[in-house]
Write a structure and sequence with these properties.
It is a single chain. The strands form eleven sheets. Strands 11, 13, 14, 15 and 17 form a five-stranded antiparallel beta sheet that branches. Strands 20, 22, 23, 24 and 26 form a five-stranded antiparallel beta sheet that branches. By secondary structure, the chain is mainly β. Helix content is 3%, strand content 50%. The chain is built from one helix and 39 strands.
């Protein structure tokens, strides 16, 4: 095999390790060799990891699984969610007791739901193959009636990877933050956790070389990794060997709590979509992992266009140090998205927003990490006729996006609507709802034309006057992969 073919194979294998598998078959040779135009194929296998939802006996957790219908898939396949192994009292891992699966995924196009209550719900390991794999999405939503972190907590189960950035964590008094690490593979993963505060790296060896056993999950309490009480932290999870799924559960004794998902990869410009119109407090947390400081222009994408927040026109982020800025009630009654761009030299950064709704003793918190655009398609599970809000932003150019509501988990007819979002604006759009809806439904977003679209979905459920809510950003659902065609059949090498 020649060198270009070897490089191609290595790239496909590396991509498949994260996003799934796509068989590579090229047409028969017709003369000259070499690469041809890339083919866009549906992934054939994908993995998702759901963290253990809560340690509260008052927690009620629901799971929703959904695979969108994708052209070009095989008619066969399966999807399953299994409990991760549990840690025994002596620190060794033991297989969790056999139990009925939390849910049984349904055929593509129809959501499936399941429930779990109490503090003993385990982390879940998920695998989908064939027609179930492209765009497979699992949402974990937990209601905690009272106590630390009370309110609504939600997270999209994540694909395994080797690096994660979490700006917005904390070890301050009143906060209880855990990094949940879940290993889907047959061999142990070795992970390092670094913490960066306002003055830089919080030197500690406790977070180095953490072993996560095969098919197991480890919650790491951040306050055990440092003696410093930091209001704003950036957590860096890097994997020495293997791969893991990672999420941060951030609980506040007074302000509720939620899951903090990872920021998109470090970049010079970032978008954080979906700030609720009634947000009473918005806090920006930013970090640059490089050696250069970052100077950023801060703008709010509103329904009428880009606005520069008074008094917060720019922010200076020192290299290796976490910077936080209180933006107050920046949305002032309108939905919005925060857009960060370099004022001069582009320096890669990561960022997230801490968003608070409510006042006094009836406040609740959620987080919005910087995210990538919708891309080819994005998928959101666990939507209801009431309490779901979809926010769309087009920060650079006017964009048109098609939004499809799936059948309901208990019945209903799919429905699609197309929306045009003007350049520089953010809109909370009126969601399509399946006719005859029973249960919950999923949304798929497909850009049709124009510039990049950023999206976020908010779930709301007010209990005893407390505005419980959780926000999930909607990047590309990794349903397809670009595979360069060659004049050689390399599919046998992936089996």
């Amino acid at each position: 095999m020649n060198r270009p073919a070897l490089s191609l194979l290595a790239g496909v294998v590396a991509l498949a390790a994260v996003t799934g598998f796509a068989e590579m078959k090229a047409p028969a040779a017709s003369g000259a060799g070499g690469s041809k135009a890339a083919a866009v194929l549906p992934v054939e296998r994908t993995s998702l990891l759901c963290p253990a939802p809560s340690t509260s006996d008052l927690a009620d957790t629901s799971y929703t699984s959904f695979s969108p219908v994708t052209e070009g898939t095989d008619s066969s396949g399966k999807a399953e969610l299994q409990s991760a192994t549990e840690e025994s009292g002596d620190g060794t891992s033991s297989k969790s007791k056999p139990a009925k699966p939390v849910l049984e995924p349904k055929a593509p196009g129809t959501p499936a739901t399941g429930d779990k209550s109490g503090a003993d719900a385990p982390a879940l390991l998920g695998t989908a193959e064939g027609k179930y794999a492209p765009g497979w999405t699992v949402q974990e939503t937990t209601e905690v009636a009272a106590g630390n972190g009370r309110g609504l907590q939600g997270v999209n189960c994540t694909a395994p990877d080797t690096e994660f950035w979490f700006p917005g964590a904390s070890t301050a008094a009143g906060r209880t933050d855990y990094v949940h690490l879940t290993n889907p593979d047959d061999s142990a993963a070795v992970v390092d956790i670094q913490l960066y505060g306002k003055d830089g790296d919080l030197k500690s060896t406790v977070g180095e070389g953490i072993t996560v056993e095969p098919h197991a999950s480890e919650p790491i309490l951040l306050s055990t990794l440092t003696d410093d009480q930091e209001t704003d932290l950036t957590v860096h999870v890097s994997v020495r060997s293997g791969r893991v799924g990672a999420s941060v559960r951030a609980l506040d004794s007074k302000l509720g709590g939620d899951w903090l998902a990872a920021s998109t990869d470090p970049a010079g410009s970032l978008v954080m979509p979906g700030i609720p119109k009634d947000a009473t407090s918005v806090r920006l947390i930013a970090f640059t992992p490089g050696d250069s400081d970052a100077d950023l222009k801060v703008r709010l994408s509103s329904p009428t266009g880009m606005i520069t927040p008074a008094g917060h026109e720019t922010v200076h982020v020192k290299a290796g140090m976490t910077t936080a800025v209180d933006l107050g009630d920046v949305t002032r009654g309108d939905p919005g998205s925060l857009v960060l761009t370099p004022t001069d030299q582009s320096v890669p950064i990561v960022a997230a927003l801490k968003v608070v709704r409510g006042k006094g003793s009836k406040q609740e918190t959620a987080f919005i990490p910087a995210t990538s655009p919708v891309g080819k398609r994005a998928t959101s599970a666990d939507n209801s006729a009431k309490g779901s809000t979809l926010s769309l932003a087009a920060p650079t150019r006017t964009a048109t996006v098609k939004v499809t509501a799936s059948a309901g988990s208990g019945g209903g007819t799919p429905l699609s609507k197309t929306y045009t979002i003007k350049a520089g604006t953010t809109e909370d759009v009126e969601l399509p709802v399946p006719a005859g809806l029973k249960g919950t439904y999923a949304l798929t977003l497909e850009p049709q034309s124009g510039g990049p679209v950023y999206a976020a979905r908010t779930l709301s459920a007010t209990e005893e006057g407390v505005p419980g809510f959780t926000i999930q950003t909607l990047p590309d659902d990794r349903g397809t992969v670009s595979v360069p065609e060659t004049d050689e059949d390399l599919s046998v090498l992936q089996k």
